[in-house]
Amino acid sequence: MEQRIFRIESYLRDDESFHFLRKPLLPDPPRILHMHDYYELFLVEHGSLKHFINGEVERLQRGDMIFIRPQDCHALQAGPEGCTILNVMFRAETAEHLLSRYGADVAGRFFWKESGQPVRVALGGATLERAVNVSLGLQTSHRTLARIEQYLLSIFLNVVPHVAHLSQGAPGWLIQACHAAQSPEVFSKGAAGFIAAAGRGHEHVCRQTALHLGLSPTAFVNRVRMQHAAQRLGEGHRTIDEIAQECGISNISHFYKLFRAHYGTTPRTYRVRHHRDPVQGHA
């Protein structure tokens, strides 16, 4: 199949920083493969497709999000029922700036993972709905640098932070269990809640979680619990004891130990730090 290089200036004016497209795909076989001098993110909104990527063919379905790097060579073909994707393209210098400024959060992940194939994450439920809504917000916005950086940071930090830790080839049941674990109804039950959501045997879940997440079920759930606790502490409405109970941790000393391990400080100090009010002069 013929290969070409697509260039960002074919899609953007000098004063534009990104291109957004909500595109229906056809089931016709692709005629060319292409690389680019820009970065590209696309989300399968509806249907399914074949993704010809770096000499392989992968089948994508609704909720799959792919982080395409300039060197990736690919083409798309919709499945028999058709397909719609949300596609975002942005300049290479934007990616370089994000990596230099936010390397602690993004290095080795998303567009910057050193692997033969681009990062693919599977979104579902409320996470998929959030990704679609955030992406569609680009449709009518000004194509400024601030807007694309805000969008990408939202994707990195708010939409896919938990599933992005999954390795390529993670089974669908594990992906769904990771989504389910974001719910208090699941993470409040600890590892047992995660294993129940996975619907597989305890030992099998432990092996697969270690393989694809690099964590035990307990460590993964505790990370989700502490992220939830930090959010609650920032809101300021509940006591620390209430937040610990909401996380499913009845031993307050254990809650403090876990929180310090994740955030390097106590829940009380974290709350004080995030409640400083420079508007009304509260330190």
Question: Would you kindly provide a written description of the structure presented here, covering whatever features stand out?
Answer:
With 283 residues, this protein is an alpha+beta fold. It has 2 domains: 2-165, Jelly Rolls, CATH 2.60.120.810; 172-274, Orthogonal Bundle (Arc Repressor Mutant, subunit A), CATH 1.10.10.60. It is 43% helix and 24% strand. Strands 2, 4, 5, 6, 7 and 8 form a 6-stranded antiparallel sheet that branches. Strand 4 and strand 5 (56-61) form a beta hairpin. Mean pLDDT is 88; it is low at 277-283.
CATH domain topology of the largest domain: Jelly Rolls
- Low confidence ranges: 277-283
Oligomer: single chain
CATH architecture identity of the largest domain: Sandwich
Structural class, by secondary structure, is alpha+beta
Mean pLDDT: 88
Distance between the termini: 63 Å
Strand count, sense and barrel status of the largest sheet are:
6 strands, antiparallel
Radius of gyration: 21 Å
CATH class of the largest domain: Mainly Beta
- Note the overall shape: globular
What percent of residues adopt helix (DSSP H or I)? 40-55%
Strand content: 15-25%
Q: What is the chain-wise order of helices and strands?
A: EEEEEEEHEHHHHHHHHHH
Number of strands: 8
